[in-house]
Design brief:
Blueprint: H1 2-21, H2 26-48, H3 54-81, H4 86-109, H5 116-135
Transmembrane segments: 30-47, 56-74
Protein name: Phage holin family protein
Keywords: Membrane, Transmembrane, Transmembrane helix
Length: 136
């Protein structure tokens, strides 16, 4: 019975992800990874500076959830406008870069060195996404 519950839960999550995001993609997986890493590095940076706050942490989680709501809206717009994945991917790339830059800022706040090639790559991705965004 327990095994059935696990399978049913996984199937339910997969169904919801497919409905909201058009399926589970490597870019969506990367975004989830970046969101989690950004949150962890943000907690560490706040802790290392003596600024850890449950209220700020809760607001951070809410902001992260809004990222995924925007991606769901973009997917629904793609479906309505028959533009397979364009808006969803654009928004996803933008937030991958944004979360990566935020992670690097958190690392700097915590006194860690920032790898410049990674920072440059994230800035380039974000700039490309913003270029497309401004054309619309």
């Amino acid at each position: 019975m327990r095994e059935f519950g696990i399978k049913a839960t996984v199937a339910s999550i997969s169904t919801v992800a497919t409905y909201l995001f058009g399926g589970w993609s490597p870019t969506l997986e990367l975004l989830v990874f970046m969101v989690v890493i950004d949150y962890i590095t943000g907690l560490y940076a706040a802790y290392s500076q003596g600024q850890l706050s449950s209220q700020v942490g809760f607001c951070g989680i809410a902001k992260k959830l809004f990222i995924f709501l925007l991606i769901a809206v973009a997917h629904k717009m793609d479906m309505a406008f028959d533009s397979p994945g364009f808006l969803r991917n654009l928004i996803t790339y933008f937030y991958i870069a944004n979360e990566g830059l935020s992670m690097l800022e958190n690392m700097a706040r915590a006194g860690m060195a920032i790898p410049e090639p990674l920072k440059a790559a994230l800035i380039q991705i974000k700039n490309e996404a913003e270029k497309y965004k401004s054309k619309e």
